Amino acid sequence: MLQNILDIWSEYNGEYIGGLITTLQISVISLIASLLLGTVIAIFCISPFRTLVIIGRAYIEFIRNTPLLIQIFFFYFGLPSLGIQLSAFIAGTLGLTVYTAAFISEAIRAGINSIPKGQMEAARASGLTYIQAMRYVVLPQAFKIVIPPLGNQFINLVKNSSLLGVIAGMDLMYHADIISTNTFKTFETYILVAVFYLTITVPLSILVNWLERRLKHA
């Protein structure tokens, strides 16, 4: 089996590297975008304005209870019927971002709720607006608390990117499907894919643990 893996790598290493680069690009963009969107949704959910709370909760419940694959299909196959044509790269990135943001927002909301209300009241009493108090006082403390769950969500995001192979996203799984079809060595082909995903998720997990330890003593 090892010889088969080495043969596949020798013949298709360009496809694997190309797919890995695309997977990394999609993962990094989705990671940043989902963190920003998730923060906004979390603020909506704890807002004093009822309309924003309803919008935030509706977004979370709808997205969390809908399969990621359906959301990817919506952006890739559904939007063209409305006259909006997206590339597989953009559609996949949007699907991952929207899906992950719902889970990140719940983690951030829990972090914000763990901050004593007196912090917000003191910030407002000092003359800060609601947004300023959230930005300069509450959110920095909340992010320290939610580093572990955020890290888990980012790792899940990378693993969920494997679903993009179904829309020809030119990612790692897409190339692996083609290689498997050409070589008929399915197990060996996906062993290499697993190794590549581990090269992304293991360092990310180590980074999250390091950040958690640093912030505990900050």
TrEMBL record:
For this UniProt entry, the molecular function terms from Gene Ontology, in alphabetical order, are: transmembrane transporter activity
Q: Does the keyword Kinase apply?
A: no
Which biological process terms from the Gene Ontology are attached to this UniProt entry?
amino acid transport
Topology within the bilayer: Multi-pass membrane protein
Keywords, ordered alphabetically:
Amino-acid transport, Cell membrane, Membrane, Transmembrane, Transmembrane helix, Transport
For this record, the Gene Ontology CC terms, alphabetical, are: ATP-binding cassette (ABC) transporter complex
The transmembrane residues are: 20-46, 190-211
Residue ranges of domain ABC transmembrane type-1 in the record? 20-208
User: What residue ranges carry the coiled-coil annotation?
Assistant: none
Domain of life, per lineage? Bacteria
Where, per UniProt, does this protein localize? Cell membrane
Q: Which family does it belong to?
A: Belongs to the binding-protein-dependent transport system permease family.
Q: What is this protein called?
A: Amino acid ABC transporter membrane protein 1, PAAT family (TC 3.A.1.3.-)
Q: Which organism is it from?
A: Aneurinibacillus migulanus (Bacillus migulanus)
